[in-house]
Amino acid sequence: MSKNKKVLKALLFLVLAPGFIFAQKFDLKNIDTGEMLNAGKDLIKAVKPMSEDEEIALGREVAARLAGTFGVWKDRAWTERINIIGRTLALYSERPDIKYRFAILDTEEVNAYSAPGGYIFVTRGLLKQVKSEAELAGVLAHEIGHIAKKHIVKEIQKSNLWQTGTRIAIASGELSSEQQKLLDSLTDQAWDTLVVKGLSKEDEYEADRVGAINAEKLGYDPYGLYNFIKNLEALESKPGDNLKHLLSTHPSPGARLAELEKLYQKQGFKQGALPDFPQRYAKFLSRNPLK
Amino acid sequence: MRKIGMVTILIMLVASSLTISGTGWVIAEAQAQAGDEEESAFWSAFRRIFSRPDPAWSKSQTQITQTTGTRGIDEEGKLKKKTDYESVKWMESYKVDEQEVMKFLQSRGLGPYKGKARKGSDNEQE
């Protein structure tokens, strides 16, 4: 019995001692609990990924800026065409459950943009450079790939802005002025990544790979994207500003083609094994001119 | 030094409790998207029936994200504050006719009809 008591005392000592030492060692009276709470929230933001609602909210802001900057060409036939191809392609992506929306920017520039949360734009100028439906599918699948792989979201999550914005970010319902300020700053950052600086080369290669594979899964020739990049390569030597932004925010067409060739070899894809529909694209284009 | 140790421990406690209940910020405007429930039901059914997820593919990809240097900064950055929410609402509420989707896929041998395209289907009238 007395042996048991000794064991019990020893156990109690082991349990209570750390708390006792802790209380003795630290000065509990002079702790700023508010500061600690805020520091704790910051820590959470550092490890907490962006939620889907947050991503959509951010994507909506970026989409509004793209639409405001370039204008949206609301042509019914073309919008329907890119939505049919884009939405069916998205079903084969790694994030098939979010709503993907496709629209055309009213500019001669050759480019495409994918804002977080599923907002995808191609330019009227890009559609003019496309020679087949498989090429269009390749481009759309590339953009879907950026969203499915959360390329922009990851860039933002790495930033100091995201990691320190917690105090005003945790809220619900209506936006406070502080929250609006944070959202504006995050949108600035997403814009800079998407439109000004561009994503990393590795992200672009990855979107190419994912795009080609998903286009093939839907049933299009996976060389569609390759052929479209070939078109860009041919344009590269011609004077004009329409390709300037795309080339400044993406790896060179030659480098992208080389990366895709590796993928095709690895996957065993053969050009022409699946349809690319150049005639259908040409007919659609002649019936629905791009202004 | 003592304070730093204390703060670290308390941060860990706060972090663990808030991680459980953390909700993140929710933007009311983003929630106010078009109520296209009918269309969602179609796409969700479509996904269930026809899409062929490939688990091997989703597992095989490594996710590499690196930041490269600044490329292509120009005057476009100055235009970034122009916004057009009306067009975004239009984009969000844009609906695709279900029959059109199925007709499109069938005529080309895509999706659920993959490999069933008729010869010369590239020349067919739409």
Judged by helices, strands and strand pairing, the structural class of chain B is mainly alpha
Instruction: Spell out the helices and strands of chain B N to C.
Output: HHHHHH
Count of individual helical segments of chain B: 6
Largest β-sheet summary of chain B: none
- The radius of gyration of chain A is 26 Å
Query: What proportion of the residues of chain B is helical, as a percent range?
Result: 40-55%
Low-confidence stretches of chain B: 13-35, 52-74, 76-80
Identify the quaternary structure here. heterodimer
Q: What proportion of the residues of chain A form beta strands (DSSP E)?
A: under 5%
Account of the protein in words:
The complex is a heterodimer of chains A (about 290) and B (about 130). Chain A has helices spanning about 1-25, 35-45, 50-70, 75-90, 125-130, 135-150, 150-155, 160-165, 165-170, 175-195, 200-220, 225-235, 245-250, 255-265, 280-285, and strands at about 100-105, 110-115, 120-125. Chain A has about 290 residues and is mainly alpha-helical. Chain A folds into 2 domains: about 5-45, no CATH class; about 50-155 and about 195-285, no CATH class. A 3-stranded mixed beta sheet of chain A has the order 1-3-2, sandwiched between helices. In chain A, a hairpin with a 3-residue loop joins strand 2 and strand 3 (about 120-125). In chain A, helix 6 (about 135-150) packs across helix 11, helix 11 (about 200-220) crosses helix 12 and helix 11 packs across helix 14 (about 255-265). The longest helix of chain A has 24 residues, at about 1-25. The model of chain A has no long low-confidence stretch (mean pLDDT about 85). Chain B is elongated, with a radius of gyration of 25 Å. Chain B has helices spanning about 1-20, 30, 35-50, 55-60, 85-95, 100-110. With about 130 residues, chain B is mostly helical. In chain B, about 50% of the residues lie in helices and about 0% in strands.
